[in-house]
């Protein structure tokens, strides 16, 4: 065991300030009341926070309550003093109206905690979708030495000898239910089979994406993201993470040293290669803004679109989290990209080495699950960034577009990247659920489904609802997907061909607010355009009509936070952060 003494520990201002013995006594006495000693608190050892996101309310991250014991041991073994504290709980599937609302709330709370208390460094316990960006955004703002520990994915789910993946099985089960092939009881049993253990979603949804990207950004130990939650290796890496943060404090290795522009470019490329979630651009934009890195949305297309999909995980592929780990996890993916010169190898990471040093020699252990770069599952698997008279920006994940959809919509030899059709417009998920199966809604195989009122203001936090299934009668005819457009988000576990995150949203009186059922919309993926085919005069008249009516209507806020966030939140294309918050940067030094 090594004692670490660092001259610049900020916790000394609380616990060991000879110039203000009064306050030192006050600060000290209360932290002694549960058994810490004056000797420890004044020993010059760093105080390391463990930002605990796990609780009974947050099942995906609950295993962090167990892992924190090993983190503590690691911190102690390296000479630090652990202090564990709660982070505002976020459970993706449990929070209403949507967990998206809570990302910025958890961010705010964690910023106050890291800034306002005597902490020299912090272990961020990440996992479920929004917990990861909330923690990284806060660490970026405060800029205290920080390292992330993933809770790890659940074990693979199984049903009748086949892998059942989180979320992805729900979309399939819904179709089976709508087609009358299973009943309610079988529906629940099938869905529950995908969640056999502690941990987060075992598919390449937003959780696996964000935990993988955290490692690609350099904010967690190499090889740590993919370890399944119940594995013994997960306990071991918890201990290593605890040890390492003490060294990071001694080295003064801060988020701003790791979260550089190069690190974000690396993460964007890894996101394409893994088939990452459409929530990733929102969250990485938010983290970048809080650390002061300029990362325009177009970067996702310019640096990410041409990267092939090489990870064969559901929803784009076949396998699940355990398989990803055994195949080599994130280092194997980064290793493939390094082989093509697609990684900025000098980017610093949490272990004090560069990503090149960490991953250059990483090998694929199972080529069914991680393909070599030369034999990808799909070429050009990144996001297309779209704009037009409907919105300033939106994205489409091309890697999940199924052959059926390509054949129906993208097979015109004269214009292979464009499709066009009449729209049916839904105002929010409730409207969609009420009308989707009603024959009067008039949906045909030509229809483009539009979801609006689902952005950060309209449905506070932005709902994951743009991926809409076709009506039951079309599913029974074998049509499994229609193109969807919307100002909301989409679950990372969905395989829907959707154009989403449209900004500005209808509730901010963006172009989608002017759309009417029956209008024709034309999408050109090659040109990156999405336009309603009505002339400017008609658009202007509709805009005036909307203004006269007092703007796009959306439901009233139900809680104080919904109302506060609605007043200050930005659009999805800008990371949906609390506008103005990025003015506060590197505040641990103040
Ligand atoms: Fe928490 Fe998927 S619901 S990780
Ligand atoms: Mg989600």
Question: What does the model show?
Answer:
- GO terms for molecular function: hydro-lyase activity; iron-sulfur cluster binding; metal ion binding.
- Belongs to the IlvD/Edd family.
- Keywords: Iron, Iron-sulfur, Lyase, Metal-binding.
- The protein has about 600 residues and is α/β, with parallel strands linked by helices.
- Among the domains are: about 155-195, no CATH class; about 385-550, Glucose Oxidase, domain 1, CATH 3.50.30.80.
- Helices cover about 35% and strands about 10% of the residues.
- The protein has 22 helices and 14 strands.
- It has helices spanning about 10-15, 20-30, 40, 65-75, 100-115, 130-140, 170-180, 185-190, 205-215, 230-250, 255-260, 260-275, 280-290, 300-305, 320-325, 330-340, 355-360, 405-410, 430-435, 470-475, 535-550, 560-570; strands spanning about 45-50, 80-85, 120-125, 145-150, 155-160, 160-165, 385, 395, 420-425, 450, 485, 500-505, 520-525, 530.
- The strands form 3 sheets. The protein has an 8-stranded mixed sheet with strand order 7-8-12-11-10-9-13-14. The protein has a 4-stranded parallel sheet with strand order 2-1-3-4, sandwiched between helices.
- The two termini are about 30 Å apart.
């Amino acid at each position: 065991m090594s004692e670490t003494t660092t001259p610049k520990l900020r916790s000394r201002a609380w616990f060991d300030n000879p110039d203000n013995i009064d306050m030192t006594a006050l600060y000290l006495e209360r932290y002694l009341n549960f058994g810490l000693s004056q000797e420890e608190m004044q020993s010059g050892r760093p105080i390391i926070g463990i930002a605990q996101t796990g609780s009974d309310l947050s099942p995906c991250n609950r295993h962090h309550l167990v892992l924190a014991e090993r983190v503590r041991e690691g911190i102690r073994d390296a000479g630090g003093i652990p202090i564990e504290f709660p982070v505002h709980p976020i459970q993706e599937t449990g929070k209403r109206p949507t967990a998206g609302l809570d990302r910025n709330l958890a961010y705010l709370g964690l910023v106050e905690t890291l800034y306002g208390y005597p902490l020299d460094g912090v272990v961020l316990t990440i996992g479920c979708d929004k917990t990861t960006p909330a923690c990284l955004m806060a660490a970026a703002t405060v800029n205290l030495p920080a390292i992330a520990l993933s809770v790890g994915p659940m074990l693979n789910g199984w049903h009748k000898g086949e892998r059942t993946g989180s979320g992805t099985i729900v979309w399939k089960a819904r179709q089976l239910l709508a087609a009358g092939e299973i009943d309610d009881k079988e529906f629940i049993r099938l869905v529950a089979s995908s969640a056999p253990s502690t941990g987060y979603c075992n598919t390449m949804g937003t959780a696996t994406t964000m935990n993988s990207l955290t490692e690609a950004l350099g904010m967690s130990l190499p090889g740590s993201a993919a370890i399944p939650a119940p594995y013994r290796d997960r306990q071991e890496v918890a201990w290593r993470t605890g040890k390492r943060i003490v060294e990071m404090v001694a080295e003064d290795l801060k988020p701003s040293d790791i979260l550089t522009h190069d690190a974000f470019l690396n993460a964007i490329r890894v996101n394409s290669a893994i088939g990452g979630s459409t929530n990733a651009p929102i969250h990485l934009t938010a983290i970048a803004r809080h650390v002061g890195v300029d990362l325009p949305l177009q970067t996702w297309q310019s640096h990410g679109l041409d990267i092939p999909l090489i990870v064969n995980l559901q929803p784009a592929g076949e396998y699940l989290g355990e398989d990803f780990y055994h195949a080599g996890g994130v280092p194997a993916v980064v290793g493939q990209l390094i082989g093509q010169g697609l990684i900025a190898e000098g980017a610093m990471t949490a272990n004090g080495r560069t990503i090149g040093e960490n991953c250059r020699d990483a090998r694929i252990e199972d080529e069914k699950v991680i393909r070599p770069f030369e034999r990808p599952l799909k070429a050009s698997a990144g996001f297309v960034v779209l704009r037009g008279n409907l919105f300033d920006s939106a994205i489409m994940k091309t890697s999940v577009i199924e052959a059926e959809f390509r054949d129906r919509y993208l097979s015109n030899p004269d214009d292979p990247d464009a499709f066009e059709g009449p729209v049916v417009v839904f105002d929010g998920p409730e409207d969609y659920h009420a009308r989707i199966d009603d024959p009067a809604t008039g949906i045909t195989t030509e229809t483009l489904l539009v979801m609006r009122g689902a952005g950060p203001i309209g449905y506070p936090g932005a709902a994951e609802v743009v991926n809409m299934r076709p009506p039951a009668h079309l599913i029974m005819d074998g049509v499994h997907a229609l193109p969807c457009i919307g100002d909301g988000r989409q679950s990372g576990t969905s395989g829907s061909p959707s154009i989403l995150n449209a900004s500005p949203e209808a509730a901010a009186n963006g172009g989608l607010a002017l759309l009417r059922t029956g209008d024709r919309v034309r999408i050109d993926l090659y040109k990156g355009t999405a336009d309603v085919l009505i002339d400017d005069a008609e658009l202007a008249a509709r805009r005036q009509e909307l203004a006269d009516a007092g703007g796009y209507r959306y439901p009233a806020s139900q809680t104080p936070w919904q109302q506060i966030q609605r007043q200050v939140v930005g659009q999805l294309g800008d990371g949906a952060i609390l506008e103005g918050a990025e003015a506060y940067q590197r505040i641990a030094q103040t």
